[in-house]
Amino acid sequence: MIDKADIRPTLQSIPWLMDLSQEQLRKLEKVAGFRFLEEGEILYREGENDNLLYIVSEGSLGIEIYVPGHGQVRLYNADPLDIVGWDSMTPVARHRITTITALKKSNLIYFDGSALNELCDIDQELGYVIMRRLSNVIATRMLAMRLKLIDLFMQK
Predict the structure, then answer these.
(1) Which CATH number belongs to the domain containing residue 48 in this structure?
(2) Is the pLDDT higher at 26 or at 2?
(3) Residue among 17, 59, 13, 14 at smallest CA distance from 35
(4) Which of 9-13, 106-110, 121-125 is predicted with the least confidence, judged by mean pLDDT?
(5) Exposed, middle or buried: residue 151 (CB in 10 Å: 0-12, 13-18, 19+)?
(6) Are 60 and 46 in contact (CB under 8 A)?
(7) Which domain holds residue 127?
């Protein structure tokens, strides 16, 4: 099990955070923590209200949406260094838009979404790094969803 004291070295090991200063990492450390999931455990369900952003440290998570007439559809597997819960950082998405389930035992780093948004507003350099990374995640997930849905509807 990872101790809260280990959060800074863990944050420093994440490639897209390596350009941040020690002060910026200290700020992130204050709003971060660890979450552990057993295989099959649900992190959150579509429609729930959860204000945390997660980075997969170890393990694998299945990202699914409900598609009428098809049930739960797996869009993506999130592996180490992938981000899940990005919807907590957007002002429009008030509720989770996917269901996340641990495909195997997983360790996650989480950030309080409200506190992280506040940090991004105060420290715009930090905000730029975070939001740039999140925009890449969102674009990648939208493409994965589009391809999966096209494949799903072509099967009909």
Answers:
(1) 2.60.120.10
(2) 26
(3) 59
(4) 9-13
(5) exposed
(6) no
(7) 4-154
Work out how many domains the chain is built from and give that number: 1
* Token code pair at residue 19: 């350009």
Read out DSSP for 47-104?
T----EEEEEEEEEEEEEEEETTTEEEEEEEE-TT-EE-GGGG-SS--S-SSEEEEEE
Residue indicated by tokens 């971060």: 32
**How many Å apart are CA 155 and CA 152, to the nearest integer?**
5
pTM of the predicted model as reported, rounded to 2 decimal places: 0.86
Here the tokens at position 44 are 């959150």
Residues 28/14, Cβ–Cβ less than 8 Å: no
